[in-house]
Amino acid sequence: QVQLVESGGGLVQPGGSLRLSCAASGFASDLYTISWFRQVPGKEREGVGCIASDPSGAGYTFYADSVKGRFTVSRDNTKNTVYLQMSSLKPEDTAAYYCATDLIVGTVFCSFVGMTNWGKGTLVTVSS
Asked: Hey, how many other C-beta atoms are within 10 angstroms of the C-beta on 11?
């Protein structure tokens, strides 16, 4: 059974950092794109960052302009986990964060389109 579980959310001050985890089970996440999204109540879900499969994608990552240079997506294949490292956080980064996969094996690039399996999310609040 494919499952994604996010963790690591919480309250952080503006300018601070936080690392979110996306623990995968039921499949080898290194073979697939894993994408991170966020959503604020009343707004559309927004793609934040993604990482393509290993080794086909060779670590290819892609980021939304709103987080480029501040957020980093990475993998620890020994733990079947993908991370979203967030730094220089702003109040507008406050949202529920979700990870997802499209379950297409061997992707060379990643995107925010076609996700089929989602985690339940973790809440990030950036406030002083």
From this structure: 12
Dist CA 47 CA 38 (whole Å):
7
Angle CA(23)–CA(99)–CA(57) in degrees, nearest 5?
85
Q: Identify the segments of the chain with pLDDT beneath 70.
A: 57
pLDDT of residue 33: 95
Q: CA 59 to CA 78: how far, in whole Å?
A: 15
pLDDT tens profile 1-29: 999 999 999 999 999 999 999 999 999 99
Q: Which amino acid is at 113?
A: V
Q: Give the number of other Cβ atoms within 10 Å of residue 24's Cβ.
A: 23
> Contact at 8 Å (CB) between 33 and 58?
no
* Two structure tokens written together for 6: 């996010």
CA distance 69 to 47: 15
Give CA–CA dist 21/124, Å, rounded: 12
